[in-house]
Amino acid sequence: MSLGALDYLAAGGAAGAAGAVNALAGGGTLISFPTLVGLGVPPVSANVTNTVSLVPGYLGASWAQRSELETYLSDSRLLAAVAAVGALAGSALLVTISSHAFRAAVPYLILTACALLFFQPRLRTVLASRRAGEGRRAAVLLGGGVFVSSLYGGFFGAGLGIMLLAVLGLCRPDPLVQLNALKQALSAVINIVAALFFVVSGPVVWSLVPVMAVASVIGGTAGGHLVKKVDSDRLRIAVVVIGVAVAIGFWLS
Length: 253
What we know:
Layout: H1 5-24, H2 29-38, H3 43-64, H4 66-69, H5 73-94, H6 99-118, H7 120-128, H8 136-155, H9 160-171, H10 176-201, H11 209-226, H12 232-252
């Protein structure tokens, strides 16, 4: 496909914004994915290209928040393995369905992610007294939630961070900053696995990848350093508004 200088600038700007928002609260791909579709990239190719391009941003954000990850060193390997398996399954599912079916599902996938993010504080409050604790039940609940989120992430990258943060927030009583760091690391694993799969079997628009990758790592690193200074509630609402607008746009187009 033919893209001009302004198209590459738009894609790079969206990737930078996505990297920052993913590091801060999740949902950044709700910015970059529709931007690619708006540039004329078919939905499946846009999703695949977006996943491959944003991997450096996830890695940059994880590195910036590495001190918060120390709390999870003991159980992060198991969660990472669960995330990898789920991501591989979701990626395989994406390349087996038709482009039309995928596009029809996009608005519903986006709204699901937005709903999880919007109701997260209320859900955490309701479930606080019912939390499973640190035993086997909690581990099973957390592992199952991470697997489903990873399956979703491998299939559709937009909103992955929102879903992971919601699952972690429901299953663990840790501070948001630490949960966000774990979310970022798991997101990196999911996107790396999905990207490796798509490199071999997905319709990647390779001309966009270098521009978006550089922009995403800059945005992700910056967002990782700003995560303690940004009002997470306001950012969460902003991402939800963007997501709903994108879903409506898909329905109207």
